[in-house]
């Protein structure tokens, strides 16, 4: 097993080296200089996408011009700053890229995976994307639109998903908007657990939102504050006006268990959140469902309780979710039931109150307070619900 793994790793390294050499030759021909010396041009981690540009187009997915074999930077030969040009933007995570579904013009996300490294990602993702689970209102898992198998590498595949954006951008306006986010995430993780799946990495980076209705202008997939064509800032509604749907992504280290195994045990596996108490002192197998509860509770603690005022009503529940002893943490069924009780105690006035960052200065706070009250009065007059439901 180890020798095969080393052989495959050596083959991958050789292939990357060959790709790098080919593209450096092209760079010298087109630009007269190595790629590494030209700001904004293709990085080594993007070469795979360039090499497969035509194949992806043939199967129905168009990458941005940056990845075309005929691409010449739009700023070349002009006085434009490369940072002001749309085609200067590569991906932050090099195995994830945006594309356009050619047949209908819908923007999508492509995720390149190694099946040998993440053998259950496709299976679990498709489970939640297949009826009857796909249309269940409690399902907050990213839909898998398509799976593309790479013709020149049987160990690789591309998962096609909707184009999403970080769930905290743009900023939350009201307490009700945040409360609805909590509700969706609690119900969503409860739903995952009911299918006997442990996510095992449900921290902030693996929570995103479908902001299709939220934005007036299509946003650029690699610089989400900008419009897709880079003609200015991407404008949006508030979440109260156009409620988004929050989604869990990345089932790369997730596991599904037999329904009879109500308390599975797994060896610790490090995801993005490395603060899990039960992983700090021992490699003893643990119940991954309890760890999921910690992940979600810790996300809420870090993203909201520690950084924003006004969410003290969540502290008792979150404190229980992040207890050091995993046996004392509530199940997601218990979390949802307790959250429902908390929600019933919140007044409309509280739900319409402004989300205040602890770092807001006096001038920033005053400006945001005035604009918030203007919107708030308008919502009340128009009877817009304090809890925005998609």
From TrEMBL:
<protein>
    <recommendedName>
        <fullName>Protein kinase domain-containing protein</fullName>
    </recommendedName>
</protein>
<feature type="domain" description="Protein kinase">
    <location>
        <begin position="1"/>
        <end position="343"/>
    </location>
</feature>
<dbReference type="GO" id="GO:0005524">
    <property type="term" value="F:ATP binding"/>
</dbReference>
<feature type="compositionally biased region" description="Basic and acidic residues">
    <location>
        <begin position="9"/>
        <end position="19"/>
    </location>
</feature>
<dbReference type="InterPro" id="IPR011009">
    <property type="entry name" value="Kinase-like_dom_sf"/>
</dbReference>
<feature type="region of interest" description="Disordered">
    <location>
        <begin position="1"/>
        <end position="21"/>
    </location>
</feature>
<dbReference type="GO" id="GO:0004672">
    <property type="term" value="F:protein kinase activity"/>
</dbReference>
<dbReference type="InterPro" id="IPR000719">
    <property type="entry name" value="Prot_kinase_dom"/>
</dbReference>
